[in-house]
Amino acid sequence: MSDTKxxxxxxxxxxxxxxxxxxxxxxxxxxxxxxxxxxxxETAKAAVELPSPYAGVVTALHADEGDVVPxxxxxxxxxxxxxxxxxxxxxxxSPPRPAEELPAESPVEPAEGGSGPVLVGYGVMPGSTRRRPxxxxxxxxxxxxxxxxxxxxxxxxxxxxxxxIGRAAEARFAQPAVGNGHVRAKPPVRKLARDLxxxxxxxxxxxxxxxxxxxxxxxxxxxxxPGSMPGIELTTEAAVRGYQQAGERxxxxxxxxxxxxxxxxxxxxSAFGIPHVTVWVDVDVTRxxxxxxxxxxxxxxxxxxxxxxxxxxxxxxxALQRTPQCNAVFDAPAGEIVHRGVVNLGFAAATDRxxxxxNIKDADRLTLAELAAALSALTSASKEGRVAPSDLTSGTFTxxxxxxxxxxxxxxxxxxxxxxxxxxxxxxxRPWVHRGEIAVRTVATIALSFDHRFIDGATxxxxxxxxxxxxxxPAADLTW
Length: 480
Fold this sequence. Notes:
- Helices cover 24% and strands 27% of the residues.
- The protein has helices spanning 167-173, 187-196, 214-224, 237-248, 258-273, 286-296, 308-322, 368-383, 457-472, and strands at residues 2-8, 18-24, 31-32, 37-42, 47-51, 56-61, 68-70, 74-81, 121-124, 131-134, 136-138, 144-146, 158-160, 163-165, 184-185, 211-212, 234-236, 276-284, 329-331, 336-338, 345-347, 349-351, 354-356, 359-360, 397-401, 420-424, 428-434, 437-451.
- Strands 18, 21, 24, 25, 26, 27 and 28 form a seven-stranded mixed β-sheet that branches.
- Helix 2 (187-196) packs parallel to helix 3, helix 7 crosses helix 8 (368-383) and helix 7 packs across helix 9.
């Protein structure tokens, strides 16, 4: 005997709500074993391979590569082998029906507390063997039917005043939600609704189990404030003409997903939620360059990549000992300053998928060689897309190296959940006053952005001065 199991997208991080299917590692008809990788999924934090919890044969893939799937939605179906009960007659398995032969109507449960229409479900897309989320309408009898016009007629857009929206967006706000008054929505979606002033009870759910999704909220916000929410299926006729003209000139649109969307959301919260102040100073790092050369020649660092970031991290960890406020965080709702007992040192890493900020746990407890090894390992893992979700959470202080891009400096935005970030510019030969004379020295600009709600200018400047002092005289005895 056999049974069909659905594997749902799990929450592979801390509070993640969705993931993008990057690459399927199996196909319909493949036999898979327990813990065999099924699919590579990119979340807002990292790209991960998801292993199979079952052994069996793949009968359906519920998403295409590039699709964004909410946590808890079906990813794949597997036909598993069941053990027959003693005395039960053996039955031959029937081969799985191809997706093209699935009926156009599939039974679903009526909406809780009512018999009104339900506007979301899974259907077979025309010309595809995969079942994908599709806008459908359910009759009071619980039968799913694809929403469409008469045969051969395209679904016409719906107009609201001078606005033109697609049928999917129309469905999200046209009628109140069906049910007993309980609105299903994940906490991040509820927070988004509060921030945008959207009443969740007025929306038509399109997510799994009749839940309100982020897209539902954004569509409703766009309708109430046209032009304020980019990416929503909502345009004016003039805008459409402009898009067509731009398209003729080679315009290309790319969905904002995964790492990029995470960065956009985090930096928006940072820019408008934290009062930033930035201070900077030029530093003679000639002696740090000499120290790096000695470290590279040392057997203790023979198999470790030694870069200026190592000495910058070392200097920052020292400075945090004297100004621990830069490692704390301001908890506005509680009216408290949270002082951390450890330093989880983050560093911004540019990858093919966008900017990520992994962090070295308990960095303040590592030796210089251990710090170098941790930096090298996390940098390689980030570039190769192998960084674990746990490495991207719980950071307390961040360093960003804009010097690798040839920049002399900048005014960085603080990583949410932290209170300060150190930016390091390029290390360049410059004319410098050294021992009373003009000489060519290696000079770098370093800058600190900090949360001015509780870190004052004196504290921020003290931190930066300590970093500068240790980079200028890296062999100085500073109780390291």
